[in-house]
Amino acid sequence: MGFGHEHEIHKRRFGRNVGLALVLAAFVALLMGLTMVKISNGDLAPRPAQESN
Amino acid sequence: MSDASINTQAQQGEASFGDYFALLKPRVMSLVVFTAAVGLLAAPGHLHPLVAFCAILFIAVGGGASGALNMWYDSDIDQIMTRTQSRPIPSGKVTREEAFAIGITLSVMAVIMLGLATNWVAAGLLAFTIFFYVVIYTMWLKRWTPQNIVIGGAAGAFPPMIGWAAVTGGISIESVLMFTLIFMWTPPHFWALCLFMKSDYKDAGVPMLHVTHGRAVTRNHILVYTLILAAIAVGMAFTAVGGLIYLTVAVVMNAIFIVGAVSIWRRSDADCEADNHKREKSFFAFSLMYLFLHFGAILAEAALAPYGLGGW
From CA B144, how far away is CA B138, in angstroms rounded? Predict the structure, then answer.
């Protein structure tokens, strides 16, 4: 017996995949936003080298 | 393959997205989000709104991850207790291995991301919170001592401290007091629940105070903790996060809370049975509002401060 596409298993698997895809997309967007904020705040700027006497 | 076998596989082998989300204990997470947000917003200093959002999100994810690890370790007793039988592992929707993998992965990710987004003091506190909840409370204290909820309650008390540290990069008297408020609130809140819960903990072999020492001793403990809590809650009004609004809320709420605790302390088991634990149930429900209003008042003080209305 084959599995119909409308079977509960497929619905759950599809829902899980969509959910995970959305979470990953949101995480990537968040990382990008966070990086832009950090750059604009100067948090990621290289520290000036200490002058030696 | 019969329909029956397909359905069994569907129920046990194919969890939905919601089942995995349930591992993170969303209801507990909402308290974590709220108290962490208050700690973050009340702290002196400023965070970019997106960084603040990320900080609260990663604190919530860390809290959720510790919930998944708790469900992984406690799946044996979750199967016994009625309250927890519908959780993803005992109901057969998610395996223990999956819960463990999700818990560990999200824990590491949340700590690293919080450190990168804010600072490593906040990240360190989050890591310690997860360690405390999973190892100290879940693995050690919960099944060993009737004081489990007292010491284990510390795990739930850390979020406002982490939120505060995310902004300031450190710990202060105000953040310690916010921690202490939740720490002292947890025992009376949870013991009140235990007084009207049926013998779930006894069946699971968890040494809750009312199981090991009886209900009368539990009532005494509720009263003592409520009195200490009141002193801390009112005292916090005179720190930098307090003000007239907070003081008013603290005085009124603690007066009602003490009256409730005294009322419970005076009752016998027969009284409780007679009215089906009416006062214990109302005390428990009030305790939720108690915490919400205290932190809500701290938030109000912080929100009104720029307009010259909050604080002293």
Answer: 10
Among chain B residues, CA nearest to A22: B17
Over residues B135-148, the pLDDT tens digits come to 999 999 999 999 88
pLDDT tens digits, B295-311: 999 999 999 988 888 77
Using alpha carbons, select from B232, B230, B240, B241 the residue that is nearest to residue B300.
B241
Which of A12, A18, A37 is opposite residue B51, by nearest beta carbon? A37
Alpha-carbon span B291 to B302, nearest angstrom? 17
Which one of B12, B16, B47 makes the best mutation probe of the A interface by having the most chain A beta carbons within 10 Å?
B16
CATH superfamily for domain B1-171: UbiA prenyltransferase (1.10.357.140)
Residue of B nearest to A1 (CA): B1
- Kindly report, residue by residue over B19-57, the tens digit of the pLDDT: 999 999 999 899 999 999 999 999 999 999 999 999 999
Q: Which stretch of A6-20, B205-219, B277-291 has the lowest confidence by average pLDDT?
A: A6-20
A16 inside 8 A of chain B by CB:
yes
Q: Is A29 on the interface with B (CB under 8 A)?
A: no
